[in-house]
Fold each of these.
Amino acid sequence: MSKDKSEYLINRKDNQYEVVIGLEVHAQVTSESKLFSTSSTKFGAEPNTQVSLVDAALPGMLPVINEYCVKQAIKTGIGLKAKINKRSVFDRKNYFYADLPQGYQISQFKDPIVGQGKVILDMPDGQKEVGIERLHLEQDAGKSIHDLDPKNTFVDLNRSGVALMEIVSKPDLRSPDEVNAYVKKLRSIMRYLGTCDGNMQEGSLRADVNVSVRKKGSKVFGTRCEIKNVNSIKFMQMAIEYEANRQVDLIEEGQSIDQETRLFDTKKNETRSMRSKEDAHDYRYFPDPDLLPLEVSDDFIEKLKLEIPELPDEKKKRFIEKFKLSPYEATILVSDNETSNYFENVIKKSDVKLATNWIIGELFAALNEKNLEITESPISAGNLSKLINLIKDGTISGKIAKTVFENMMEGDKDPKKIVEEKGLKQESDPKALEALIDKVIDDNREKATEYKSGKVKLFGFFVGQVMKVSGGKANPQIVNEILKKKL
Amino acid sequence: MSDITKQSLSELIKNIKDKKLSSTEVTKAFVERSEKSKELNAYVTDDFSAAIDKAKRFDEKPNLDLKLPGIPMAVKDLFCTKNIKTTAGSKILNNFIPTYESTVTQNIWNEGAILLGKLNCDEFAMGSSNETSFFGNVQNPIDKDLVPGGSSGGSSSAVAAQLTPITIGTDTGGSIRQPASFTGIVGLKPTYGSCSRYGIVAFASSLDQAGPMAQNVKDCALLHEVISSYDEKDSTSIDFKRNNYSNELTNNIKGKKIGIPKEYRVDGMPKEIEDLWKKGIDYVKDCGAEIIDISLPHTNYALPTYYIVAPAEASSNLARYDGVKYGFRADGENLIDMYEKTRSEGFGAEVQRRIMIGTYVLSSGYYDAYYLKAQKVRKLIKNDFDEAYKKVDAILTPSTPSSAFKIGEKTNDPVSMYLNDIFTVPVNLAGLPGISIPAGHDVKGYPLGLQIIGKAFDEQNLLNIAFAMEEKINFKNKITDWWIK
Amino acid sequence: MSIDLKTIKHISKLSRISVNEKKAEKLAGDLNSIFEFIEKLNELKTENVEPLTSVAETTLKLRSDKVNSKNLREQIIKNSPQENEDYFVVPKVIE
């Protein structure tokens, strides 16, 4: 396998294969109630307690669409720089399954609410544009539970009817790394917009992954397989890796690839065919006669545009231009809205350069270690800002600051108080430092003589000793100046 | 008063309001007659003792301001009724008890009416003779072993036989108007979007409408006024200004322009239907209306269109009857086996046939040739009416191409059965209101109906024309109570 | 055009209705006579006609995002064929 530069290729004998990937991401719309019914969307409720008569498909029950879900889909479309379709149509996708009470899913087939758009990925070797084919609204299904009983399957309809956005990418992705960047970017945009919480553990974000391979340089797409319902980025990457290699092996053996739906077995780390022969799907899509075409006015869309916050790409641009951040720093800081908000709060009253380094360096490391999100940070933006100012104005040294930071991580304490209580204030008084330095020189007579006779390297030793004696509190700049004179 | 059940709805309301009759007396009278009329098989489920209790409670504290004060009423078993079994004439719902009420029936109870029971109908309203019901044939009170029409056959039989003063049916392709015509009563299919579909077991969503079935036009207007309402729970319900149809009813239709579509003169139409239509034209003229010949060129394509659109929607609407959440379930080795057995045993032959047609016309490779084609022809059919209504206010046609036929006569020939709806189906496809009024008898003494088709939301005008014609026709139903021993 | 037994079996699978040979033959006969009469539509040229999905001349009304979240579990499960307090129960699903 070749990973030179960013090109992801699969090598076999004389052949190199490129992997072509397209994603259908299913993102749960953040809303209080379901797409076509008034029951709650809250996660984790007791089974079948958030099921309305409509969700359970009782006879004579009819769907009525949730305006907020429509707005959320349009906002997401705007975030994806996509065409918003002023007229879209809900279709029925017909198939039988235990957790599909109506016997059909209400979805959008021919006329989705959002058309073509794009997502920009920041890859190590530059930016890459991924095309969005469409975004449509649809209902989620319920949950079948197979392991509660040996003979029966249990069905929980709490999720049944929850609004999903299916976001279909063009087959523009070429590696597991790009898939990682794409899903994260999509999630970031939706979190900025507040349209999907992106919580993969709770199933708010999952994807069907389309994979095909072709010889490097070929312009023709190979036969693709669709890996259904993968619910973590890591699994998506593993599934692609496995599936691409499987397809390459088949081609190398002179066999053909069946276009089919496959399942990723996370335990065995392999994909396997899902389709049983008699069940070739024919969804018999047709416009749902219980609903009329969804029409939105220009005015409706314009009003939503006013609600769109600054999105990661624009924010990144601003950070680079206004705060002189490197593209790398900016990318990290805008990755989610909470982080960028934190950053902007810190720099309201403190130095940008120091703040950037402290957030990306110390803070992220510390949060990572404790497995915390930025929103759960024990150190508030205000207190981090104070800490940075203490460094900037010379009250404490960078080294002492780390000690103070560690103290702050134990609870959101004011760094000034920590410095005072623990007596960590930097010693910058030349007289006091002179006394210290005299004592150090006195204690190390021999070394002083050596220094004077030309062993200039020993200067560092003296600085170190002074710092040690001062308990790290001595202002190194002033120590330097005095030492030079004294020696 | 001995002949309570012979009174029209309007008379009963007047007598209750004037305190000449109590709700209990009225309810008991209809219960007694219904109990003596089991042979008609009009009811699937009765709620007689509860009805009498409710009537007594009404009488204790009568609210005489209501539009249907203490009036007992049986309804088609396609309307979900809270805590009362609702079967849609199917085995698959034989044990289904809704915990909710349809909007249309709720509107009725809100006006003081009392549920007598649930009336037989073709399974999932798919039929024109009430012979597809899991609960058996319904007898037409006109003559023994005569079908009452369908799908609202229990409803037409019950009104004609005076087991209920009035009722509601549903009409997807003629299911109110055709049985009304077969039993000598009045039946109105309102404009699509006029009555809420919430809580009505769905057959074909883009065509289904509930409507009143009554002994006369005035009663029909009153019930329509009660059931027609805008409902936020039905996305296809339309918010328009609804009239007090019964109050505003008038027989003055002078100057109205009535269209006569030449395409409704179909091959092989019995002469007595042709004559009835001519008589109808004369009546309209007598009322001072103007007759205008019109053309609805795509009329002949309506029935084939309907037999694509309705089964397609039905095949999807009936997917929810899968043995999982409610209704009948057959044992199966696994989920798929359970589905296939449940639906094979739970649905009758006609329903299965239509599900198959619908599945086929939507399936991959056939969608464009059938379903899409039908939607386009549906547009042409609607355009025909739009064109016609530039020249006329309403259209007069026969309701059916024949009078009622014998039970079993057409069961083995689905196409000949479907041809029954040839005059009614275009109205559903175009979403228009249509009313059938009894207008005469054939040689056997069986009733024949005339249909008036109106502009969308123009039920008032439609009812006025029907009201004026009714006066001229002066129809008398010939019912001998042959089933009462 | 003719609908053969294979087609009948295919659509019976799609519609989850089991058919045996006898029933399939009856259905094929019925459907063929019905489609013969449906084929009449082919007389019409419809290339430039917009399909009509709904006659309701109104736009889709949108409801506000409010939860009316009564727990209806008891009501919902009440009619289900196999008893269980919490779940709908179906025979094992085999993939």
Amino acid sequence: MSLQVVTANRLEDGLVVFLTSDGGWSENINDARIAEDKEAANALLAEASAPELDIVIVGPYLIDVEQQGTDLVPTKYREVLRTKGPSVREDLGYQAV
Amino acid sequence: MAIVKNDSLIEQEWITVDAEGDLPSSDENIIVPLARFKEERDSLLGRNGGLGVELNPGDTPEDLAGDIDRLSIITVNFPAYTDGRGYSYGRVLRERMGFTGELRAVGDVLRDQILLMHRCGFDAYDLQVDGEVALDKVRAALKEMTVYYQPTGDGRATAQSLRERRRAALEQKAS
Amino acid sequence: MYRYDDFDRQLVLERTEQFREQVKRRLAGDITEEQFRPLRLMNGVYLQLHAYMLRVAVPYGTLRADQLRQLGMIARVYDKGYGHFTTRQNIQYNWPKLDEIPDALLDLAKVEMHAIQTSGNCIRNTTTDQYAGAAADEIEDPRPYCELIRQWSTFHPEFTYLPRKFKIAVTGSPNDRAAVKVHDIGLRMHQNEAGETGFEVLVGGGLGRTPFVGKTIRDFIGKNDLFSYLEAILRVYNRFGRRDNKYKARIKILVHEEGIDKIRELVEEEWSQIKDGSLRVDDAEIAHYIEQFAPPAFEALSDDDADFERHKAENRRFANWVRSNVIEHKQPGYAIANVSLKPIGGIPGDATDTQMELVADLSEKYSFGDVRVTHEQNLVLPHVKKADLFAVWSELDKADLGTANLGYVTDIISCPGLDYCALATARSIPLSQRISERFGDLDRQHDIGELKIKISGCINACGHHHVGHIGILGLDKRGKEFYQITLGGDASQDASIGKIAGAGFSEAEVVDAIESLVTKYIDIRDGGERFIDTYRRVGMDPFKEVLYGDR
């Protein structure tokens, strides 16, 4: 199984965030807590789906990632776009900062 | 778990029975699904207690045309608030068939749909929250908007009718 | 142009407050995301790939200068300095914050605008001919009826939770620029035998995953009866439209499954019971709305202007722009000027805050403060004196808004695609940019002539690919973007749904594929034929051959 992390959109501003090791949410995928097997992935998603998080984030789900050097990179192009920002506006999104 | 009608909480005085099974004693007030009403119409109308009918999405309210005055209550079930068929049923019952009894919304009845229901002829709301909370929700919902574009049977003046009234008044003043 | 009175104003303010409360309840956890979702959608707030998206209604595509200026301000203050004009003649912003959206809505309310019903399973923004009130070929200005439809459909208590979304379009001209045949309801103004003007009513058209051309449910409905007739259609749809499957819930499926005759019967039966009721609109009220859209104070001018002719002769770029982007006006001495939002290699339909402000200024100076949004994602200055066209174009040109390509191969409709949209399966903007660059040479575009390319990034067809002369649908094939080509679609009065040419193309191949289609067309066209005409004459095979050869 490939590595997985949990992503969601933050309720307040809609921005893409990732579940971190301390149970918080970061805009940087490299801060994400990684699940290496099915069991860990399920636990990660269960944690992110807790009802009390309904006022923090929206729509958590697991994505496949791989380690490229020091970076975590999603394997699906949809998630790459989601993680970086619009490919047609490289001045915007997370890729801009 | 509270029913709000005419700006107050009311008691549940009706027993809702399902499509099959025994009916409670003849003195009890009961609400039966439309299909059962059609099947057992004569015996149901012969009972002593009050009689109401429950409409579900897909039902035809017109089936009640001949008996509308015999019913004290009609409940319209919204199994999910996103299923909007009940709004049409409300208007047909009130505006076309002249139903004057209680028209109660049941099921997934939420605050943000109550004004729409009221505009479509509903006068009672069975909410899945406790008494005072339910009353507050209904009150808040009903006063959120004060301008209405569509003429429905709810008696509210539409923007258009108010405009006409104002225009007429101005013309009278001018002449 | 229609101005709000105190009732309209009050309603929008109340709505804004209502939404502010809903957001507050959501952020406080009083309502769940599941409960909040339809509420935010009915105020045009989506949650997209990267952020929230706010879609603002531009009723029937008509804007005043002060409104467009405010849209520019909102782009700057609440977004990242730009907005995207859509095929529903609306504008959407890509980066607003949820807790700031109520303030943005309040700023919109100040200029008589809102985001009401720009999403959700309700009646959406009514669209019409962007040249309404200006076009030389118009029977009657459709906007008074559009405004009446706007009011009738706004917070309609019975039709807020329909089986699915519902879109109405109106054309007042026999040359349909509003794509009425691919709407849930299309209204086409025409005269009956008695010489009265009314509407042909089409129902069940639409794009999406199951495209259909609408069918005539009634040849003629008088103006007074239009609204009760619409209500009858909507009630039949609300009661009988399918709710068991989201993809079969549009009225087109009901019409397709039950047959137009059965639907007509149901609607006529319903209508017979309400036609004499309070939705009947009398002549005096209609006259009141017609007055609101009275023509501006045109000057009596000669249709020929010497300076205009001189500028055309002296400046080839201006002459090119006039040739493609300027359209005949009903008033002598005036013209309709189209502002292209499709610069070569640009993002179709995007405009920056300062571009919006510039067009607002120009409309104030040269077009009676009137601006239109087209469903093909451009802007229009509808009433410009021919004598002023050169000044207008010069200003537009400086702001990268003077591209001469209206109706040409680079005037592409494109949905936001996977660069923004959470539903998309592939990107559409980068492809539109590459096609635009490939065909950027203006002489070549002139030679090709009218060619409508429309690109959608998923099967929902927001980019109208089914009705593109060449349509492109972006899909995901085993984790890669790939693109399916359709040919022969048309959104006009001769509406047709395009046919799939064959297997899809990779991102790398697709622009070459488009070029080979265009080359083939030039090869085999008869004099004066547009691409769509040639396709209709020769059919799919010659084009298929250049795409696939022996494959």
